[in-house]
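The protein record filed here.
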Amino acid sequence: MKRAQDEGITENKDAILIEIPGKQMRNEIADIEAFRCRFNDEYEVIRQVQEKDIDEKHKKQIREIEESKIPLTLADKYVGKDKVTEFVGFKPTVITYEVRRR
């Protein structure tokens, strides 16, 4: 395959080389200022939609806070690590075994 590609061989008596291009992925917009200058009205709409999406996601997280887990780091900070550990305990210790020659 490599030799055929290097030498530009596309076929012989037994086979044919078929080039199958992969899916094309577009690059992200790198020059935001240039994009904004060229598409100013659309840029403003895009940013408004982004802001709305972020705001809605944030509001949803706030609504669901009572069902969410309490981070141990925050509980340790405001309640105290000893008290929190007494309340939750420890996960079972994982024991691993290995065989070694003497």
